[in-house]
Design a protein that fits this description.
It holds the Pfam family Ni_hydr_CYTB. The structure is a single chain. Helix content is 67%, strand content 4%. It is mainly α. It has one domain (24-190): Up-down Bundle (Fumarate Reductase Cytochrome B subunit). It has a two-stranded antiparallel ribbon.
Length: 192
C-alpha cells in the first residue's frame, strides 16, 4: 500500500482502567467498597454513641465486624488494582492546589479502607479476644498485647472524623466537577 496510513487507535478494554477512564472492575469495586465502608462507618458511629446495653448492641457489632472484614477484602483488591493500573489522568487541567487535594484525598481514602478494618481486627485479637463473627472464629486471639491494642484503638476511634472530612471533600469534588465545571469526572465512575 502506498501513501500515508493513519495509525490505528489504541483499543482499550472496558474491564481495565486506561489513562483517561476507569474500567468496569474499578467502578464495581468503588461502589461496593463505598457502600460497605459507609455501612461499617455508620454502624461504628451508632455503636460508639449508643446508650443501649451491651447485649442490645451486640447484633450491630456483628454487622460492623462483618462489614469491616468485607471492606478489608474489597480494599485489598482495590488498592492492588490501583497500584497495578495507576490513576487515570484528570479530565481537565486543575489548579495545582486542587490536584494536590484530590491526590491527598484519594490516597487518604485508600489508606482508610485498609487502616480501619486492620485496626478493628487488631483491637479484637490484640485485646485478648478472637475475631469472631456470628460465632465463626476468623482469627484467634493473640492474647493481650497492651501496646498493640492501644495503638489499634487510637487509630480506630480517632480516624472517623478525618475519614468523614475526606469523604465530604471527595463527594464535593465530584459534584463540583459535574455541576460547576461540567466535565466528565463523575461520569467516568458512574457511566457504562
Amino acid at each position: 500500500m502506498h501513501g500515508h496510513q493513519q495509525p490505528h487507535p489504541v483499543k482499550t478494554s472496558p474491564i481495565t482502567d486506561g489513562s483517561t477512564h476507569f474500567g468496569s472492575v474499578s467502578k464495581i469495586n468503588h461502589w461496593i467498597t463505598a457502600a460497605i465502608f459507609l455501612g461499617a462507618l455508620g454502624l461504628g458511629i451508632f455503636i460508639e454513641n449508643s446508650e443501649l446495653p451491651r447485649e442490645a448492641v451486640s447484633p450491630y457489632m456483628q454487622w460492623h465486624k462483618a462489614f469491616g472484614v468485607s471492606v478489608l477484602i474489597f480494599g485489598l483488591w482495590r488498592v492492588g488494582w490501583r497500584v497495578a493500573n495507576g490513576f487515570p489522568k484528570p479530565v481537565e487541567q486543575m489548579p495545582a492546589w486542587q490536584d494536590r487535594t484530590a491526590k491527598v484525598v484519594h490516597v487518604g481514602l485508600l489508606t482508610a479502607i485498609l487502616a480501619m478494618p486492620i485496626s478493628g481486627i487488631l483491637m479484637s485479637i490484640a485485646g485478648g479476644r478472637d475475631l469472631s463473627i456470628w460465632g465463626l472464629t476468623l482469627l484467634p486471639s493473640l492474647g493481650k498485647i497492651e501496646w498493640l491494642d492501644t495503638v489499634a484503638k487510637a487509630v480506630h476511634e480517632t480516624a472517623p472524623p478525618v475519614i468523614l472530612l475526606m469523604l465530604a471533600l471527595h463527594i464535593f469534588g465530584a459534584l463540583k466537577h459535574h455541576f460547576i465545571d461540567r466535565d466528565t469526572t463523575l461520569r467516568r465512575m458512574t457511566a457504562g
